[in-house]
């Protein structure tokens, strides 16, 4: 667009120069630059006209433009025979030739100008199209700059797709292996498989008794995991040693509670997030609950009935603990319907309670985790009302002397030898009111509920490695 505009500018400039030349230079060429205009001249004539003196005998009028924009100069002169000898006649002829040349040049310029104007008109749609394309390009460039950060995301998705493809192959291989295992298992009778499982569990417990068990010699400083809930309650992880379950369960309160919160991990429990709620079919009593091999075991409210609840399937099993006191008949020293305390250690599932025939002394019974049947019982001779809390480690019952500040582990009963001893193992009761204390053999730690705080203690065990022939 700049070239045609320059041409138009040149044409207009040329026309202005020609006009200026004809209005100023032309009179001087014909010797009229000294002409005096009479103030009394006729006002009806063109104000731009030049009127010569009376002795000149002719007139020259000023330049004008015709409707087509061309410059027109009118000369009125005497008859030609009067001017032949006039030296200005020759100048006039030369001037006439120059005017004709200029007129021809202006016609050429006019043609070129018309052509250039037409070119400009033809170029306008193209220029509008180019302008639109420029705007489109700018918009596309802006969109490209917005999309550029997504390149890394696309690359990540591409990597993820490759990973998924690898996992798909691995899952296919695993499916083939599982199919083979299923076919192999199908060859065995269910009863035979159950016997094999029981045998493996027995061997596992024997191995752990040999390598992992020991006597309690120390309790660490408390580790506060979280502060939540009321003054009384219980919290736990699965106490089954082979289990890889990382879930955490929390049961707030000790009286007629039914709501169990299940957290995915210990980290989620600490933050109070990612949990589901289980509503038990029967309310609980006390805080002596335990999760063992995926099932929740608890004491049914206002009864000596033990309940096993498969949390995943909502299947419930109930069995009465014969003769056991309940409803604050023989609780721990802090009360709270803590008559029956269920717990687990390296050797299995246990119930700690008492009865009237035993004169309120603590009874320890080993339970079948499937049927809740009592397998064997021991009378420890220690009064239950004098105990703050109790827990099992490697078949030995450890009893604290108080649930308040200054408490310590001061009594131990060994079920493998039916003997007892007094101990002096202090620990820091940081929040001064323990309503639950249970040992978890998977983590070798004591879980406690202390005045609305969930607290952990690590334990130190003195290990005795027994030889095979000594067993």
UniProtKB/TrEMBL annotation:
Localization (cell): Secreted; Synapse
GO BP annotations, alphabetical order: signal transduction
Keyword Coiled coil assigned: yes
Chief subcellular location: secreted
InterPro entries in UniProt: Noelin_dom (IPR022082), Olfac-like_dom (IPR003112), Olfactomedin-like_domain (IPR050605)
Listed GO CC annotations: extracellular space; synapse
Keyword Coiled coil: yes
Domain Olfactomedin-like: 212-463
Name of a matching Pfam family: OLF
Domain of life: Eukaryota
Signal peptide start and end residues: none
Alphabetical UniProt keywords: Coiled coil, Disulfide bond, Glycoprotein, Secreted, Signal, Synapse
Protein name: Olfactomedin 2b
Organism field: Myripristis murdjan
